[in-house]
Design brief:
The complex is a heterotrimer of chains A (about 350), B (about 260) and C (about 325). Chain A folds into 2 domains: about 90 residues, no CATH class; about 220 residues, Orthogonal Bundle (MetI-like fold), CATH 1.10.3720.10. Chain A has 14 helices and no strands. Chain A is an all-alpha fold and about 350 residues long. Chain B has a domain of about 180 residues: P-loop containing nucleotide triphosphate hydrolases (Rossmann fold, 3-Layer(aba) Sandwich), CATH 3.40.50. Chain B has a 6-stranded mixed beta sheet, with helices on both faces. Chain B has a 4-stranded antiparallel beta sheet with strand order 2-1-4-5, with helices on one face. In chain B, helix 4 packs across helix 6 and helix 6 runs parallel beside helix 7. Chain C has 2 domains: about 60 residues; about 260 residues, MetI-like fold (Orthogonal Bundle), CATH 1.10.3720.10. A two-stranded antiparallel sheet of chain C has the order 1-2. In chain C, strand 1 and strand 2 form a beta hairpin. The longest helix of chain C is centred in the N-terminal third of the chain and has 46 residues. Classes of the chains: A mainly alpha (about 350), B alpha/beta (about 260), C mainly alpha (about 325). Chains in contact: A-B, A-C, B-C. Chains A and B meet through helix 1 of A and helix 2, helix 3 and helix 4 of B. Chain A: It is found in: Cell membrane. Chain A: InterPro entries: MetI-like, MetI-like_sf, Phosphate_PstA, Phosphate_transprt_permease. Chain A: This is Phosphate transport system permease protein PstA. Chain A: One of its GO terms (cellular component) is plasma membrane.
């Protein structure tokens, strides 16, 4: 302790360039200043872009964003100080990042709705493409709807029990190296590209001499769906409080009935949400369908035999034809697909929210 | 550098919940003021209003005045960042930056506030570590991570980090509650030395500690369960512990409740 | 443990006891068998993906007259059959790198925005909007990319060519619309944004409060708190989030297949139309491929599989290590 004061007391001499301590107060920009900067920046960006004759809105946006960052940095440096300016710059950059993400989403949804609505009607939903040539304006999506529903249905029927059981194993029984391996490979499986899942089933088809059918597509979708179901179910089962399990076991109820009657019902809301999100994800998969179901212009209600179509495949097919009428059909089908996926998403999240208070504690 | 703090009519909220109500007191410079009182009486909340850390908590807001040598911390043109730079704080659990070395931990605050030559930085870091009675223990491993130190050393490292920026006031929120008795003693000795230079405010659950280290003691209490915390009295520590003017204080100190 | 409990419980309902105990023993065995079996089945599927793809690939590669790794051509139907993945590997890696360079900073920005900057009431809706990006099917991204994004990028491409053309990379030597690896990269960036954002966000939310308060109490601005406390804590999280995003980008099929106008050349002029990726090539060449051609495509798919496996595995290992590390320290 004797050494301490020596260093401490002699403060006058090499004292650090102690920043002025005179005042706590400092000049600062008004709270709504960033909004003002944004308005000025957009005005400048758009004005300059128009003057330079640039057509692309992307350039307008980039220029405006740049102006926004520069203006807020410079203004803050001048009025406040460099540190505040850096802080302001970081905040502005983050706002810009968020907008950068929102713009494509908005553009995509807007385009799909506007372009899709041109062609989407009852006729479109109830007719197939039988006998319709690419440039003709008739035709519909009925056969593709059937295909999607059947393929996704089969995939769901296979994936859900497998996924649930695996998740139950991991949460309720799993210890040791097998569980660790399963956990790791479920994670890795989540990252398998859909086209690889398709190629896997294709290689089986080549070896066993199988014909393309809805079932083959559904099997590839199953591979994509299982890990998603396992992951989400696992999360939900972990939320079930241990007291519930113990209470049930202490009543002398065997473990398997405890799981079936107590654990799963408690988590059912969250599990349903997970399954619906998984369905929404695989419903939009195109690549495996190209390889395994082959596509068809006709209505084929039998998923076990013969080529079928599906919504995403139909969009790709119509896009590739490259006619005005086929683009219209592609957008209309995209609208149907997006509506399907978004509704599933909304309902799933609704269930999650509705069920949350009962299980989430 | 040490400054006087004048608090008047201070009320703090968490959302719509009023945590402390209408507190007024004066904290003398170059002295140690201890806050004591039962759990949940708002002493930590009150401490955090003195460097505007309270408003970091979601929903936290403050009414009233805190004057630091006649300057109101809550005036509209005051930047909370400047306030926290002037009023340093040490927390209940030692919280050195886990990815930084001991040296960088002490230098962290300085580097935020401007650029220093390497030699200047070395001097200040050494001085601060000496000031925190830690220099001899760590001088050979300044480049090792701060998280490798013992709990008591980590807490002294945090004190070194706080005093490196030469604050006017040092707030300590139960700085010894996570430490063993020997480390606690080391910190208490340190507080005694630091009060030569800083205005120190310490929240403590340990009344012996308050009696040992502080010059003045403030007793806080709840009017009733669910009611906001209030300042009951503040006085010379000796008087609070021997002859308090309010009955509740005496009850608390003699262990009749709390 | 469960099967032994019945014997210990008080004999409350004597009537029921014999039955549940016996079905309990049996039921437990069956149920454990089923659930463990599902877990094992997953491992079997993973293994058989590797085995089957390898088996078909060997068939293809053994008849390949070109060099599988270095040939700049894809003609398995030719006589002799010649095909190689050089162009595909190049295009896959380049487009994914472009996607990462664009997406990772933006995603980290959004994640910080949600976890530390946005007003509390805005944070949840913003997170939801970003998650919606993940819900859009890739084929819809594909036609949006081809029919909306491509025409919009013309101006930007001219710009890049004019001001950054000296970098070689952004030199546009061929006229033609923007069906280039660069456009593909931008589209992939949009598509991987949600996953990188959500994983980083989770990590940022886990930063211990006391680390942030340490910085705040030193008089740090919000940005300085992030630099001192949040980013150092979240670094490994950002790395693994980026790698998960990379895994997605490498394997994306439809968005690339619709946007790119492919050729079998390697060019670092990323603004020029042309190039190809594994997944895009498979989707595009499959229709015209005979049985051997399919095996050749499977061989290229195997490379993609291994690539994504490595990237995803590494990402998961980093996450797992970080969990142990932070758990030990807490």
């Amino acid at each position: 302790m004797s050494h301490a004061p020596t260093g401490v007391m002699e403060r006058p001499q090499p004292a650090p360039p102690a920043p002025k301590k005179s005042s706590l107060g400092s000049r600062s920009l008004p709270r709504l200043a960033p909004l003002g900067f944004a308005v000025v920046a957009v005005a400048l960006g758009v004005g300059l872009s128009l003057a330079a004759g640039w057509e692309s809105r992307i350039q307008w946006g980039m220029l405006s964003a740049l102006f926004f960052l520069v203006i807020s940095y410079v203004a803050t440096t001048v009025v406040e100080n460099q540190r505040q300016a850096k802080d302001r710059l970081a905040t502005s950059v983050m706002w810009v990042c968020f907008l950068v993400a929102v713009v494509p989403l908005a553009s995509l949804l807007w385009t799909t709705v506007v372009r899709g609505a041109e062609r989407l009607d009852g006729y479109f939903l109830t007719h197939s493409m039988a006998g319709v040539l690419g440039f003709e304006e008739s035709g519909g999506v009925y056969h593709a709807l059937i295909g999607t529903l059947e393929q996704v249905g089969i995939a769901t029927v296979i994936s859900v029990p497998l996924g649930l059981l695996t998740a139950v194993y991991l949460v309720e029984y799993g210890k040791g190296s097998l569980a660790k391996a399963v956990t790791f490979f479920v994670d890795v499986m989540t990252g398998i590209p859909s086209i690889v899942a398709g190629l896997f089933i294709l290689s089986i088809m080549l070896i066993a001499n199988l014909e393309p059918s809805g079932l083959m597509g559904a099997l590839a979708l199953t591979i994509l769906m299982i890990p998603v179901v396992v992951r989400s179910t696992e999360e939900m089962l972990k939320l079930v409080p241990n007291e519930l399990r113990e209470a049930s076991l202490a009543l002398g109820i065997p473990k398997w009935r405890t799981i079936l009657k107590v654990v799963l019902p408690t988590a059912i809301g969250g599990i349903t949400t997970g399954v619906m999100l998984a369905i929404a994800r695989i419903a939009g998969e195109t690549a495996p369908i190209i390889l395994l179901v082959f596509g068809s212009q006709l209505i084929n209600t039998n998923p076990f035999e013969g080529a079928q179509s599906s919504l995403p495949f139909y969009i790709y097919e119509q896009y590739k034809i490259g006619e005005v009428a086929s683009y219209d059909r592609a957008w209309a089908a995209a609208l149907v697909l997006i509506a399907f996926v978004m509704i599933l998403n909304l309902v799933a999240r609704g269930i999650a929210r509705w069920k949350a208070p009962k299980t989430g504690r | 550098m040490a400054k006087r703090i004048d608090i008047s009519g201070l009320t703090a909220y968490y959302g719509s919940h009023k945590a402390i109500e209408d507190i007024s007191m004066t904290v003398e410079p170059r002295s140690v003021t201890a806050f004591i009182g039962p759990s949940g009486c708002g002493k930590s909340t009150f401490l955090r209003t003195l460097n505007r850390m309270h408003e970091v908590t979601p929903g936290g807001r403050v009414e009233g005045k805190v004057l630091l040598d006649d300057e109101n911390l809550y005036a509209s043109n005051v930047d909370p960042v400047t306030v926290r730079r002037t009023v340093g704080m040490v927390f209940q659990r030692p919280n050195p930056f886990p990815t930084m070395s001991i040296f960088d931990n002490v230098a962290a605050g300085l580097r935020l506030n401007g650029s220093y030559r390497k030699s200047e930085l070395n001097d200040i870091v050494e001085k601060s570590l000496r000031g925190a009675n830690l220099w001899n223990e760590v001088k050979d491993r300044l480049n090792k991570p701060g998280s490798g130190l013992s709990g008591g050393q980590q807490q002294r490292l945090c004190i070194a980090r706080a005093i490196a920026v030469e604050p006017d006031v040092l707030l300590m929120d139960e700085p010894c509650s996570a430490l063993d008795p020997i480390s606690t003693l080391a910190i208490e000795d340190l507080i005694g030395e630091l009060k030569e230079r800083f205005t120190i405010v310490i929240v403590t659950h340990n009344m012996q500690q308050a009696a040992r280290v502080s010059d003045r003691t403030a007793f806080f209490n709840l009017a009733a369960v669910g009611k906001p915390g209030r300042l009951i009295e503040i006085d010379e520590t000796e008087r609070i512990f021997s002859n308090p003017s309010v009955q509740a204080t005496e009850d608390y100190i003699s262990g009749r409740f709390g | 443990m469960a099967s032994t409990t019945p014997t210990d419980t008080p004999p409350a309902p004597p009537v029921d006891r014999p039955t549940p105990r016996s079905t309990g023993r049996m039921g437990d065995k069956v149920f454990l068998g089923l659930s463990r079996g599902s877990g094992i089945l997953l491992l079997v599927i993973m293994a058989s993906i590797a085995v089957f793809l390898t088996y078909r690939s060997v068939i293809a590669i053994s008849k390949n007259e070109g060099n599988f790794l270095t040939t700049f051509d894809w003609n398995p139907a030719g006589d002799p059959p010649v095909f190689g993945i050089a162009v595909l590997l190049f295009g896959t890696v380049v487009s994914s790198i472009i996607a990462m360079v664009i997406a990772v900073p933006i995603a980290v920005g959004i994640a910080l925005f949600i976890s530390h900057y946005a007003p509390r009431k805005l944070a949840a809706p913003i997170a939801y909007v970003v998650d919606l990006l993940a819900a859009v099917p890739s084929i819809v991204y594909g036609i949006w990319g081809a029919l909306v994004l491509v025409p919009h990028l013309e101006g930007l491409n001219l710009w890049l060519d004019e001001y950054l053309g000296w970098t070689y990379i952004f030199e546009k030597t061929e006229v033609g619309i923007a069906r280039s690896l660069f456009t593909v990269g931008i589209l992939l960036a949009i598509m991987i944004l949600p996953i990188v954002t959500s994983v980083s966000r989770e990590v940022f939310l886990q930063v211990p409060k006391m680390n942030e308060e340490a910085a705040l109490a030193l008089g740090a601005t919000r940005w300085e708190v992030i630099r001192l406390s949040v980013l150092p804590f979240g670094r490994s999280g950002i790395i693994s989030a980026s790698m998960l995003g990379l895994g997605r980008a490498l394997g994306e099929t439809m968005a690339v297949a619709t946007v790119l106008s492919p050729n079998f050349l390697i060019s670092l002029h990323v603004l020029n139309p042309g190039g190809g990726t594994f997944a895009q090539n498979i989707a595009a060449k499959f229709g015209e491929a005979d049985a051997f051609g399919r095996d050749a495509l499977i061989a290229s798919g195997l490379v993609l599989f291994v690539l994504t496996l490595l990237v995803n595995g590494a990402a998961r290992l980093i996450i797992a290590r970080r969990k142990e590390y932070s758990g030990a320290n807490a």
